[in-house]
């Protein structure tokens, strides 16, 4: 749980950092864009005044300064419209047109759009403030447009890096979990090997010394059970061999085991089709999955209730559902039930369902999930084995 909490904290920090960077970038860029827009507006006022001076010039007027102001505008798109809305001239604008007349017509349309947007300066051609006038229409320069769009590009880049960082953290977490599971499983199988071998030997000695003892067969069953558990642990971390097995038979073994290990207050119900369903699985590991679900169901029912194993065929999929009449799972916990370390029980490591998910989805290429759960009514886990598992049916003899 500590590792999960740490990963969650890192993800929150990354997201908050991305938001802060994005907001800061937007604020700073908008501040700069505003200042540049004001500066460009002042430049256009000077440029418009230069155009008025050019229109009112006579043969004695010195136009060097006026022409310099007009020619120095190489960045701000500008269109000059007369009072009738016709374009007289334009600068820093690319227009499509076969001739000058066509280009001026397109420029007039663009100028009217700028005028409508409020980006225009009205200049009267005389000193009276009435009579003929021109509208100097302008747009933001390419620099301002790029600066305005940059924060959004930066936000996208930051989000991409955040996603990559979170993915790397999750991948690292998953890899570390896999190493822990594999190491723990292998070590458990190794540690169980020696005492199991000794128990098997002692069982054989006791059978020779007390051949009629009624308890020895039960001891032998328990030793075999330990051997099966050790075998299951040894298979974790390596790709198990999948062979055709009848699901009814596999589930039947689980029911027999649960009936022996639980009280009479736990009712095991089998809802199986008449025909056997043969799927390529590793029977030992798949039984482990069903046993784990059944044991969790017994805990959820507090040792009293009904567990239903339902087997069916849907298209090319074999479906196993394990239902109980226990206390159910809260909605906020459903998406965490397969997370390593998550448990609602006072005792337990919270690894059972995560291992079940690994066995079903990674080893058998199937799917396991919570189909239904309601607090106080029970839970249903659903397992789907895909069509590539070689699903066939055969009549049970």
On the 0 to 100 scale, the average pLDDT is: 81
General form: rod-shaped
Based on helices, strands and strand pairing, what is the structural class?
A: alpha+beta
Number of helices: 9
Element-by-element helix/strand order: HHEEHEEHHEHEEHEEHHEEE
Structural features, described:
The protein is α+β, with helices and mostly antiparallel strands. 54% of the residues lie in helices and 19% in strands. It is built from 9 helices and 12 strands. The chain has helices spanning 2-55, 64-71, 100-116, 142-209, 216-235, 247-261, 283-300, 331-334, 352-363, and strands spanning 78-82, 87-91, 120-124, 133-138, 243-246, 266-271, 276-281, 305-314, 317-324, 367-374, 378-385, 392-394. The strands form 3 sheets. Strands 6-8-9-11-10 form a 5-stranded mixed sheet. A 4-stranded antiparallel sheet has the order 2-1-4-3, sandwiched between helices. A hairpin with an 8-residue loop joins strand 3 and strand 4 (133-138). Helix 1 (2-55) runs antiparallel to helix 2 (64-71), helix 1 (2-55) packs antiparallel against helix 4 and helix 6 crosses helix 7. The longest helix has 68 residues, at 142-209. It is rod-shaped and about 135 Å long. The two termini are 49 Å apart.
